[in-house]
Amino acid sequence: MSESAQDQEIQELKKKLKEVEEQREQEKNQREREKRRANFAEDENHRLLAEVERLRAQLAQRNQESAIAQIQTRSSPSPQPHRSHSPPSIPTVPLNLSITSLTPIIPNQDVVRWTENKLIHTADNNDLSTVLFNPIISSGIVRFEGFYDSDAKTQHVGIADTSVVYSPGCWPDTDENDKKSVLYDSSGDISHIQNNIQYGNMYIRGNGKFEPNKRIACEVNMTSTPKRLHFFVNGEQQPISVVNIPSQIRFLVFLQAKNLTFTVTRFESLPISSVKQVRGQKAFEYGKKWLSDDYDKSLSSSESENDEQYYINFVEGVTVQTDGIYSTHESIQLELDQLITKDELLPLALLDTMEIVLKMLPFNLVQINQVFQFLIIVKSKVVMVVN
């Protein structure tokens, strides 16, 4: 083959190679564009969901204000046409909360950065970072919601007292901060006063796990007495909650893994609480040390001493109502007291027709003893009536 023919063949090969490389580059660019479009669509979907929830909350508040104004107008004996009617005194709630009003307190900007509504962990390391958020929450009913974009060994959301300050590389419970924070981790456990985050047996089980792209929400009610914290996963209320939380709190998020992202989807005040009664609900008190399966352990440790005091006998056919979302010994006393005051001739045997182990109900041991003592009185009254 002549030299000119070889040169021509080489040029042809170079040309074909260039065409193949250009084609590969075009396909790569196309895939990247499609990926960006998919990510944009997902972000837009979350944004729209957050916007829908915000508008629903605003609508509910407007309906509430309208209903109150109508009641005032009807009940007023001499309406003043030149004077606007304001709703009756209700707890003041901030109405201007939004994701844009969030300011993260990031211990090390080289590890985690904040972009629009995302906390993004660096790709360079797996350093710990516990991020608090301003503003401080001290009034109203406020909901903070977001999701992790991928799996990580440890993920936490929760609240912390305003005195808490996190240094770079800190766990959320570092330096006694476990006593001033409540954490909900991706395994479904909540923790408080843990001394060391690795002591998993100190966690309270019962809430659902949250996986990548599942929305996790913390809702605090600073208008209720006591103040309360509830958790939600994909909008579904979780059974384990916390009461007597501090009067001023910040929301927190913990990140540890390379490239891990937490996206905030909601930060807003609500006109009314989202909380309702759910199956298996239990409330744990802030400031008290919790044990894993607190009620089960407390009961089992003392059960052999006096089995009788840990059981409550319910009168057949009596339904114990709950006061709000928590069952209390007062509500049981009220139901039984109403039954006795009817002067019905009830045989004592009816008090023993149904036994329910108290560990299935949200009581502490002090309340258990109070209920038991009351039931002794109730039994005495029934005996006297029958005899």
TrEMBL record:
Residues 61-71 have a biased composition (Polar residues). InterPro entries: B30.2/SPRY_sf. Residues 1-47, 61-94 are annotated as: Disordered. This is SPRY domain-containing protein. Residues 11-47 have a biased composition (Basic and acidic residues). Transmembrane segments: none annotated.
